[in-house]
Amino acid sequence: MKAYTFIGIVHPASTPLTLEKFTQVLGSIDTKENIGEIRVKVTDSKFNANLILYNDKYNTIGFELLPTLVFSVETMFQTYINTASYYYGKEYNLELTHIIDESGYVTNIRHVAGVVEGNHSKRPFKIEKVLSLLYKSPHSHRILGELNAAIGDVRDTGFHCYRAIEGIRQHFVTSGNKAASWNKLKDALNFENSYIADIENYADHGRHGEIKSFPPEKRDEFLSKTWEIMDRFLIYLESEVDKLDKKKFPKLV
After folding, report:
1. Contact between residue 84 and residue 17 where contact means Cβ atoms under 8 Å apart
2. Which of 45, 113, 220, 238 could form a disulfide with 117 if both were Cys (CB 3.0 to 4.6 A apart)?
3. Is the CA virtual torsion 108, 111, 115, 116 positive or negative?
4. What is d(CA 145, CA 125) in angstroms, rounded to the nearest whole number?
5. Do the strands 34-43 and 2-11 form a parallel or antiparallel pair, or are they unpaired?
């Protein structure tokens, strides 16, 4: 058996939340087996959760796998908080800050956005230029909102990535023809359907209320591809041409 304690805070702290202790069996979505349990409580917006893994094959999980562990349980904890959002009609969000193992060792939880974090030097323009370019598109608020949600909403990264791409597609809509706008988008930015097929697949599951798990490396793939399309869209807006130069911007497949 292996045990961890997660510490966090529920925002906004200005409206303190208290929830009674709740115990839930932890099961694998893929294998349907019970692998442990969680015991959660919130006192004045202070979050505390005990994760107990009682299946022998999970006893080797160590802090080298911390990102995967956090990835696996954070959405479950947020669901607990979302129940309060439904019940009280208020928005609450959970921020995990520390994890403590059974020996008492404390590790700060640093929420990593994924492959796109810290790569702002790879963006085609400085932030001021990005702001000025996005004024050219009335859909920029939706696009940026979905990119932000793709980073913060770990379980639904694919869903939000696809929504961001669909927001970019809206820039190419004429006469309400959806199929034509997809063709214009792919032609203008030079990418194939295959480039975003996996993102669309996961988005479809989320849109229909289904649960489909995926590993952290798949999340990085979704983010990387979506940011590449966003980069090309900004360059497209700046260049004011019908389509990007295919020699400078090879087809993404």
Report:
1. yes
2. 113
3. negative
4. 19
5. unpaired
Q: What residue has token string 């995967």? A: 68
C-alpha dist (Å) from residue 95 to 7, 48, 70, 78, 153: 9, 11, 11, 9, 12
Q: Name which of 40, 224, 29 is nearest 114 in CA terms.
A: 224
**Residue that the structure tokens 């639904």 belong to:** 156
Which residue do the tokens 């209320």 mark? 209
pTM over 0.70: yes
215 burial (CB, 10 Å; 0-12 / 13-18 / 19+) is exposed
At 166, the amino acid letter reads: E
In angstroms, how far apart are the furthest CA atoms of the chain? 64
Per-residue confidence in pLDDT tens, the chain, 253 aa: 788 899 999 999 888 999 988 888 876 655 567 778 889 999 999 999 998 887 655 544 444 455 556 666 777 788 888 889 989 999 898 888 888 988 888 888 766 566 787 788 889 999 999 989 988 888 888 999 999 888 878 778 899 999 999 999 999 998 778 899 999 999 999 999 999 999 999 888 777 677 666 777 888 899 999 999 999 999 999 999 999 999 999 999 9
Q: Which residue has the tokens 């909102």?
A: 145
